[in-house]
Amino acid sequence: MMSEGDTRRSILTQILRNGPVSATDISDTLGLSAAGVRRHLDNIVAEGLAETVEAPRSTAAGSRGRGRPARLFRLTDAGRGQFGHDYDSLALLALRALRETGGDAAVARFADQRMEELFSGVDPEADEPVDEQARNIAGALTARGYAATVDHAGGGVQICRHHCPVQDVAHEFPELCAAEHRVVAELLGRHTQPLATIADGNGICTTHIPLTTIHPSSQKES
């Protein structure tokens, strides 16, 4: 007997392979009760992993006459994501090829373009508080899967990314991290300090934004 998790996975696999597919077809293929399959399907749809579509009229008419059209299920992008992607491998191959043909400068230009596109919707105002500017930047990062937050620490503001969707790629191509820090500093119009990156094995990517600056002229000469 399959566990609840195994049953759910089997249903998702059936939708992936055969969708759009009906609950009846899934239950027949897996040898499960129609009621049990529909319960799982309701949860899968509620979680945004699948969506329902009406069966074509010609198909529905053959089996249901003038009744309500059969509901068919197909996976959403989030549902397909449950089966994994090989985007990292593809990105690594592409960047390796770019480095071979254009050198480090070509990779750096690509990284700059990617980060400028990522932050294209961020336009801090000159009189906007630094922490508010940081929150806008964190919002742009979160929208791209970085799960970013803003904290106050060490006499400044810190932008923390709790996830890195390009972790493996950034580990081999640190130009991505360097470009991000550079663009963030330009948006803020002030010095920033990269403290840690997930790509280097840390738990969080952290950028520190000091709120005070020590000028050389203010220090005593030795």
TrEMBL record:
CDD domains: HTH_ARSR. It comes from the Bacteria. It holds the Pfam family HTH_20. Gene3D superfamilies: Winged helix-like DNA-binding domain superfamily/Winged helix DNA-binding domain. InterPro entries: ArsR-like_HTH, WH-like_DNA-bd_sf, WH_DNA-bd_sf. This is Transcriptional regulator. It comes from Corynebacterium variabile.
